[in-house]
Amino acid sequence: MDENVRKRNELLAQKTIKGLESRNMTGYYAASKEEALKKALEIIPKGSSIAMGGGMSVHEIGLTEALKTEEYNFIDRDAIEDKRAAALATYDADFFLASCNAITEDGVLVNIDGNANRVSAIAFGPKKVLFIVGINKICDDVDGAMKRARSVAAPSNAQRFPINTPCKKTGSCVNCKSPDTICCQFLVTRYSRHDDRIHVILVNDNLGF
């Protein structure tokens, strides 16, 4: 990475971390995926119960595989036949892992969901929420974050699933009411009432969608 780009990204991350702190959330800066993984494992104590949504960024830094060991109680929803039971177990977990669709420079998190399992766990339930967020997710303001979530993240995520939505075909949001829409719930997290619950690792890399 060009040194000028690296420095710019670091400054932007530090600004966003200050925004998070003003909203009773904790932010960290990681210069690389490897550093992000190390920081995440420092935050999550061994023996913790851990659940997650479908965050690609969590996979990309290697955190998912690192937690699938006997040292942690990883709730693997893909390996549990009863999907409802797996989803409900999430709400009592010590940690919920996620990324976000977008984050503003002043620390507001924006997420869109289809089934609501991810946004509901972010809002309430698990004792702590740990976000892994690439520098590419930072936007100027909430309007920009919402636009990114709907026009970039959602159409990209739609490609992963066997669904029939306009954005999967065109690559752009048309504000659809398709039965397959993955944009059913919108969560804007502007403040955390609970101390030490929400933690965000900002990574100097392009992660997720």
Gist of the model:
This protein is α/β, with parallel strands linked by helices and 209 residues long.
Give the number of helices: 8
CATH superfamily: NagB/RpiA/CoA transferase-like
- Average of pLDDT: 95
Strand order within the widest sheet? 1-10-7-4-2-3
SSE ordering: HEHEHHEHEEEHEEHHEE
Q: How many extended strands? A: 10
Secondary structural class: alpha/beta
Count of all domains: 1
Write the topology of this structure.
Elements: H1 3-22, E1 26-30, H2 33-43, E2 49-52, H3 56-60, H4 63-67, E3 73-74, H5 83-90, E4 95-98, E5 102-104, E6 109-113, H6 117-123, E7 128-134, E8 138-139, H7 142-158, H8 166-170, E9 185-189, E10 198-203
Parallel strand pairs: 1-10, 2-3, 2-4, 4-7, 5-8, 7-10
Antiparallel strand pairs: 5-6, 6-9
Task: Tell me about this structure.
A hairpin with a 4-residue loop joins β5 and β6. The chain has helices at residues 3-22, 33-43, 56-60, 63-67, 83-90, 117-123, 142-158, 166-170; strands spanning 26-30, 49-52, 73-74, 95-98, 102-104, 109-113, 128-134, 138-139, 185-189, 198-203. The model has no long low-confidence stretch (mean pLDDT 95). By secondary structure, it is an alpha/beta fold. It has 8 helices and 10 strands. It has a 6-stranded parallel β-sheet. Strands 8-5-6-9 form a 4-stranded mixed β-sheet, sandwiched between helices. It is globular, with a radius of gyration of 16 Å. It has a single domain, classed as NagB/RpiA/CoA transferase-like (Rossmann fold).
